[in-house]
Amino acid sequence: MIALFHAVCTSLKNLWYDKNARSAMIVAICIYALLYPQPYANEVVRNVPIAVVDSDQSTASREFLRRIDDTDSVAIHAANDNLLAAQELFYAREVFGVVLVPAHFERDLLGGLPSSVAVFGDGGHFTLYQSFSAAVRNASQSLGTEVRIQRLVSSGMDSNRAQSIVSPLEITAVPLFNPHGGFATYILPAAFVLILQQTLLTGIGLLHAGRPQLKGLELIASPLAYILLYLMWIVVTRLLVPAAYGISRVGDILPMLVVALPFLTAVTAMGFALLRVFPTRASMMFFLLLQGLPLFFLSGISWPTESIPDIIRLIALAVPSTSATAAFVQVDQLGATLHQVLPSLKLLAVQTLLYGAIAVLPKRSKVAPTALR
Amino acid sequence: MPGRPCAGLQRILRRELRQIARYPAWIVMLVPAPIALLVVLSLIFSDGLPTDLPVAVVDLDRTTLSRQAIRMVDATSDVDVALQASSLAIGKEALVAGDVYAVVYLPENMQRDLLSGRQPEAITFYNNQYLTVGSIVARATTSALQTFSAGVSQSALISSGVLPEAAREALVPISVQTAPLFNPALDYVQFLLAALMPATLQVFMIASAAMAVARDMRVRSGSSRLVTLGRTPFGVLAGKLVPYAVFSLFSLIVADAIIFGFFGAPFRGSIPVHMCYTVLFVLSCQCFGAVVGTLAGEAVGALGLSGVLAAPAFGFAGVSIPRLTMNTFAWSWGSLLPLVPYLQLRTDQVSRGVSPEVSLSGFAWLTAQVLIYGSLAALLLWRKSRPRAFGQEGLA
Predict the structure, then answer these.
(1) Where does a domain end: A166, A201, A232?
(2) CB–CB of A171 and B325 under 8 A?
(3) What would the pLDDT profile of B102-136 be if each residue is shown by its tens digit?
(4) Residue A185 to residues A234, B128, B252, B328: CA-CA distances in angstroms?
(5) Is residue A178 part of a domain?
(6) Substitution target from A293, A311, A347 for chain B, most B beta carbons within 10 A
(7) For chain A, does the N or the C end have fewer beta carbons within 10 angstroms?
(8) Are residues A129 and A12 in the same domain?
(9) A369: in domain
């Protein structure tokens, strides 16, 4: 036991004195913790500038535009007389959308004729477009409903009855979790799972690629050392980083640690298994570097797993982050019980065994090329 | 040693090609690996739009009208009623377990209250932790329920009999004609994939250039020998980076072939203009990588530094979150990355199809990056090649 403790300490010391491993497994994580959240630090898209072209210039059209301006998501930045001027602002990226209110908007609206407004936005800019069109839709709905009620009331109907006839069903959408729709809350809890995986794999590559296979006590001590180090990083990235960026978490700490353990063992085992494929440090690093973005989109956080073709989904299940990301997010952000993430935990355990077996298989006697370091 | 002006460049180029050819594993990493990643990314987004996202319904009414509402939710292409839960608690459990993205709650006595004008409330609880999916699901169920409500409203007007003409009036007084320009189907291929592929290749370009430049700088004499061979630092950089430029350009063209050929995204610009900034993008990434490589001074450190700088770049690119909402640091940092002007030029020229004059600032931006990073890399290399380099060695 004492021997193991010493061996673990030696492994950690080796890690600390290897400049590259220290950079990957300690310095890089600190930099990521500072750099990565920056784009998302403002959380919500607010007051996106838009231009309006009001060809009606009536009380109703002004009321309609005021309702759009009143929303949190967009703000009217420019009022133009014609569409061309608004388009110019759009192409210059000064505004991100244009609302066009046609002439006779008010006349049609009050006369019971369908009046229509047009919305132009860049469909290639998804988030902006969605919040913009939602703002316009909401404004048109609330104004339209009021106009219909008024018309029924003015023709002699009781106002309560008019209201219930115009909108018989009250429709509410309630966001559970991340109620403000924050980007940091959405991206960061998932991204840091991947960051830990990639840096841990890289660190193992840096410390062990192109070197003799581990034997004896070291075979237990080295993985154990990395898992212990990364348990600390789990605490930092899942508790401290969210706290620093104002991300609220729902789950308890204990179930999170229970997810962390098989995740770290699976990643560590995978790291040692990858050593069998990549003979040099540089080649393993280069390979890992390219995987980051695709792996993130395989985790099901920003692109639903239901829409990923089965074959890709199956291949992706071989990587710990795929199931672990969902499990961490469920436990931390949704307050899921361990029972609810059991399938992920089982998968991580299987990965640990499988990769562990690959890692300790006896090596073919072949001289690994040492160049390209 | 007099000779043609490009002799130094050619010597370095031949040397680099020999080094690449020596390791077959390395060749795999330079061409098939990036292409394979592009294919995986394309397969992930091959649906274009998420459809049939699972939702649960909790129908406490169990009447003709409530079932009709459920059918209408199920009928939308975006969502699929995957679970009929008997209570809200069961529905929420399925949501937390990740089986469904939303729970649609229809209250007891909904039909009775609808018909008697008591305005019952239908609630969609959706999982907004998954922001993209959550908003799709919430929008789809809400609009299905609105259509349902409009139908009830219509029949109430007719059956009330008092206002036969009112029933014929516009049910939706103000219709919103949404015209998502340039991506009318709101297809994720054009929105996300078209940006993700260059972002992935940016990591590849920066890392390969950094590695190539750093590989020979491990010992101090290495840099001097390089500069002697290549005559000038620019000769060294050009000779070393040409092979990787060819590989990178090839991968970018494959990515474009997938987007415009396979997925059939409209190409509204001119191919020469598109190629022009694509080449500038490659050069800018490579010069950026060369700066990283000369700073690191050895291959593994160069890859590590590339990873720290280039791997988080996608978040700064303004695709998932618009650049105008970022803080000053994130905005400025994004401006330094080649991906940002490239994606802006690409949006302008290819999807918006504006005239190249509109994009002059983008061209200037990307060109400035090439010049600044290129000169910086050459300067660093020159300093390190001098017998007594006062630049610090190693990873900064």
Answers:
(1) A166
(2) no
(3) 999 999 999 999 888 888 999 999 999 998 889 88
(4) 17, 10, 32, 20
(5) no
(6) A293
(7) N
(8) no
(9) no
Which amino acid, one-letter code, is at B299?
A
Domains belonging to chain B, first-starting first, are 7-45+185-385 (no CATH), 53-168 (3.40.1710.10)
- The count of other CB atoms within 10 Å of the CB of residue A244 is 12
Considering the domain architecture, whether residues A337 and A211 belong to the same structural domain is answered as: yes
Task: Please list every residue in chain A whose beta carbon sits closer than 8 Å to the beta carbon of residue B300.
Answer: 20, 206, 281-282, 285, 373
In a domain? residue A27 = yes
Residue B125's Cβ-side half-sphere holds a number of Cα atoms within 13 Å equal to 18
C-beta separation of A89 from A120 below 8 A:
no
Question: Can you tell me the distance from the alpha carbon of B31 to that of B49, in angstroms, rounded to the nearest whole number?
Answer: 30
What does DSSP say about strands B121-127 and B102-106: parallel, antiparallel, or unpaired?
antiparallel
Whole-angstrom CA distances from B380 to B217, B291, B305, B371 are 11, 8, 16, 14
Which of A56, A286, A308, A339 is the best residue to mutate to test the B interface, defined by the most B CB atoms within 10 Å of its own CB? A286
Is residue A226 classed exposed, middle or buried when 0-12, 13-18 and 19+ CB atoms within 10 A define those classes?
A: buried
Where residue B220 falls among pLDDT bands split at 50, 70, 90? low
Closest chain B residue to A171, measured at CA:
B122
Measure A222 CA to nearest chain B CA, in Å. Answer: 21
A242 and A189 in contact (C-beta within 8 Å)?
yes
For A61, the domain range is: 48-166
Q: Are residues A200 and A89 in the same domain?
A: no
Q: Which two tokens stand for residue B129?
A: 């932790």
Q: Are residue A86 and residue A120 in the same domain, yes or no? A: yes
**Length of chain B in terms of residues written:** 396
Domain termination residue (choose one: A137, A166, A195): A166
Residue B359 three-state SS: helix
Contact A177 B129 (CB under 8 A): yes
Examine the domain organization and report whether A212 and A124 are in the same domain: no
pLDDT by 10s per residue, chain A, length 373: 888 888 888 888 888 988 888 888 999 999 999 888 888 887 677 788 889 999 888 888 899 999 999 888 888 888 887 888 888 888 888 888 899 898 888 888 888 787 888 888 877 677 778 888 888 888 888 888 888 888 888 877 788 888 888 888 889 999 989 888 888 888 899 999 999 999 999 999 999 887 887 777 888 888 999 999 999 999 999 999 999 888 888 888 999 999 999 999 999 999 999 998 887 888 888 889 888 888 998 988 888 988 899 999 999 999 999 999 999 999 999 999 999 999 999 999 999 999 999 988 876 544 444 444 3
User: Same domain, yes or no, for A214 and A336?
Assistant: yes
Closest to B119 (Cβ–Cβ): which among A96, A148, A170? A170
pLDDT tens for each residue of A174-219: 998 988 888 888 889 999 999 999 999 999 999 988 788 777 788 8
Q: How far apart are CA B137 and CA A67, in angstroms?
A: 25
Same-domain check for residues A142 and A239 = no
Q: Encoding tokens for residue A370?
A: 């040492």
Whether residues A26 and A99 fall in one domain: no
Alpha-carbon distance of A285 to A275, in angstroms, equals: 11
Q: Which residue matches tokens 């060294």?
A: B236
Domain count, chain A: 2
SS3 string, B47-92, reads: CCCCCCEEEEEEECCCCHHHHHHHHHHHHCCCEEEEEEECCHHHHH
Q: Do B322 and A134 touch (CB under 8 A)?
A: no
Q: Which residues of chain B lie closer than 8 angstroms to A287, CB-CB? A: 29, 33
